[in-house]
Design a protein that fits this description.
This protein has helices spanning 24-46, 50-76, 82-101, 110-132, 137-159, 165-181, 204-231, 237-271, 275-306, 314-336, 344-355, 365-388. By secondary structure, it is mainly α. The protein is globular, with a radius of gyration of 22 Å.
């Protein structure tokens, strides 16, 4: 074993027509992000202001990149290999530190957040360079570019630790923003050029399953919050009603994603002649909206459980309606990738959420939450019925073309 290159392959063995399974170590790794999502939702609930929302958004996107970048590398690496498992354990530790520091990221734990994030990216990239050098030259060059991008962004993360307030927010926003747009430039680096999907092959069904599991994590976090909150409350009729509404809303959100979209997306990427493009747009980018919607919706559930009566203010209304709206938007755009048009059920659902805004003047937070749950049920049922009656849109035919994608 060379210090600078693996002498044996640590890549998955791909067999034609066979789906690479998600391994137990990958599921174990994901457990860290249950904690991360919980920290994000609690942070937003505690700092429910425009500034707090912006800070939570920034940290959520950083957490997403920490997870999705790992999902990409385990698409290539074999998690049954001991060095790969050690890498995942190290990344779990970094993710746990990052998650634990989230509530005070803009206070006295900025250095913990920045170091954990930077070291996770560095460890992942260096391992990939070591694993790929003698076994996949195209992807090795791809990770050279990615590593250069991440190294260039590290000073922004670390520099933000030594300034306060708006300056820290600005530096970290620049870092997260640059990482977010990097795939749009295909990680272009002077003299090295840019990455292309011809450098490597994505196992589409595995990527689809990994992202579906992250959605399960986020939805599971909302269930945990609902259960933990109601356990500490008096079981009055109003509180029990809020509990039921929160649960029904979570089930409806599950149905919106998994009843049709997840399976259709998996088939689409598995059959595509350019799975990297779909993995970048559909799973790397559009799922950010879906996960953000779940996190905000979980905050809304907790608000309703604590204060089901009264009249919702602007902040409460923004959370109660904004979370489901983000979720439906993310799902609609994701499903558009495998259909010739946006799903009408989701567009109608977004319109119905808008119609709930005037109701805030005459109803309670519990009433708004119940209305949102009904809207989500309508969307899920409409889509299910259209599939059952043969009216669901067929996957759109796409011309083959060379494209570029994020690794």
């Amino acid at each position: 074993m060379s210090a600078f290159a693996a002498s044996v392959s640590h890549l998955r063995v791909r067999r034609g027509g066979e789906h690479s399974r998600v391994t137990f170590i990958e599921l174990f790794f994901d457990l860290v992000f249950v904690f991360a999502v919980t920290q994000l939702s609690h942070g937003l609930l505690t700092h429910l202001t425009p500034l707090g929302a912006l800070q939570t958004l920034l940290l959520m996107v950083a957490v997403w990149w920490a997870w999705i970048d790992t999902a990409w590398i385990t698409n290539w690496l074999d998690p049954d290999k001991a060095p790969v498992r050690l890498l995942l354990f190290a990344l779990m530790l970094g993710g746990l530190v990052l998650s634990a520091a989230i509530p005070k990221a803009f206070e006295d734990r900025a250095l913990a957040v920045a170091l954990a994030y930077v070291l996770m990216q560095a460890a992942r990239n260096l391992f990939m360079l070591w694993a790929l050098r003698h076994h996949d030259r195209g992807n090795f060059r791809n990770f050279l570019r990615i590593t250069i991008w991440h190294v260039s962004l590290a000073p922004l993360w670390l520099g933000g630790c030594f300034v306060d307030g708006a300056d820290r927010l600005l530096l970290w926003a620049l870092a997260v923003g640059a990482e977010t747009i990097a795939p749009m430039f295909y990680f272009w680096v002077p003299w090295l050029g840019r990455s292309t999907t011809t450098d490597w092959t994505v196992e589409g069904a595995h990527m689809a399953e990994r992202c579906g599991l992250f959605v399960i994590i986020a939805l599971g976090e909302s269930i945990l919050i609902t259960g933990a909150t109601v356990a500490d409350l008096a079981w009055t009729a109003e509180n029990v009603a809020a509990f039921v509404v929160a649960f029904v809303g979570s089930v409806a959100m599950w149905a919106v994603y998994f009843n049709i979209g997840a399976e259709r997306g998996s088939r689409m990427i598995a059959a595509s002649d350019d799975p990297g493009r779909i993995a970048r747009s559909g799973y790397t980018y559009l799922h950010i909206l879906t996960v953000a919607g779940i996190i905000v919706a979980a905050v809304g559930d907790e608000m309703v459980l604590h204060h089901p009566s009264g009249h919702p203010g602007a902040r409460e209304l923004a959370v109660l309606l904004g979370g489901p709206a983000l979720y439906l938007t993310g799902n609609a755009l994701f499903k558009r990738l495998s259909a010739p048009y946006l799903p009408l059920s989701h567009l109608v659902g977004l319109g119905l959420l808008v119609l709930l805004i005037p109701a805030a003047a005459v109803t309670t937070p519990l009433g708004i939450a119940a209305g949102v749950a009904i809207v989500l049920i309508v969307v899920a049922s409409w889509e299910w019925w259209s599939l059952r009656t043969g009216q669901a849109p067929r996957p759109a035919k796409r011309k083959s073309r060379r494209s570029n994608a994020r690794s």
